# Entry
Amino acid sequence: MILLLQAGAPTDMSAPDTVWMLVATALVLLMTPALGFFYGGLVRAKNALNTMMMSIAALGVAGIVWALLGYSLAFADGSGFIGGTGYALLRGVGLETRGTIPHLLFMAYQGTFAIITAALISGAIVERKRFGPYLIFVALWTLGVYAPVAHWVWGGGWLGRLGVLDYAGGTVVHVNAGTAALVAAILIRPRKDYARQALLPHNVPYVILGAALLWFGWFGFNGGSALGVNRGAVLAFVNTMLAPAATLLAWMLVDLARTRRTTAVGAATGIVVGLVAITPAAGFVSPLAAMAIGAIAALPSYFGILWRSRTRLDDSLDVVAAHGLGGATGALLTGVFATAAAGGVDGLLAGNPRQVLLQALGVAAAMLYSGVATALLLKLIGLAMPLRSQGRDEAIGMDITQHGEEAYTHGEGAVLLVQGATTPESQP
# Structure
């Protein structure tokens, strides 16, 4: 966010700014069900609903937790590490202005960021994570991990004071979620079928639809981070169009060079990577720089996915490569391409190499804190209840075992359930 004024500051509410921020909030909220479609299409049919529900559930859990306490921990006055409880239970959060928009609207807009950040993590642990423990994890992670990191950068915390740039969440959202996804995938362990059989997407059109809706919603994600109708919003909006286009083109060219064909799943993934990469830089770089960031970001994420597929790391939907690597690449390149003329501070190419070091510090701090805190939360929850489903439940499918329904009638899960789940795990 480029400007964080204290609530009650003597600035009159701007009707155009308020209207834009209402639209932007709705656009970012749309991104979470869009993520559900993107993730849901990538899994097997018997797990489609459960995967989509992990995104939908974050709307309720993270949304309410954010309003009750998370917003206060991120944006109320506090220490350099975490905010206080001044806004707990939305105390003091009303229709008074914060900058040029109502304080209540600012809270809601920030809440959409908290929601989708928590939902992103689910992509690393789908097809085996039990739904109840997942809900508890989302609540605790939003309060204990997302809110502090948001405070560090946007709420007056220590990274923001040092001058770390993060326009709309490359570090706060994507590096944070990508690191948590890595830790969760390791601790929850691979699916029982991982590396034994091909785990193919069941509905590629869902993946494309999800990517398209994410791109649409991302205009609110980045453009709304200007907090009004201004030059920053226009720049971020245009960069959000150009950077993913460059990533998509680069991704397809690499695919063609490697395999002589391009895949739809790869193209959709490239779009998302480009969106992630431009997020920290959207209002700080020129359109040409945005295209460069998008093209460059394709490489680490593309080859990160290839590398992961040859390991025992079962990051089911490649959250680490797409969001972790994509966010880190974008954050570092922000320090390279940022210019004061575009609305930020000068970066490396404008004669300020220190900014790259600051960006690297922000990425490292978020990774360290998110990794350790996520591991502690999962271990704590694991002491009270199992984190993952049993082998029989995985064989039947998470849709039926966790929700009692399935995406497609007479699907794979229903057949296994009728047959008593005759799998190696259920045989004597």
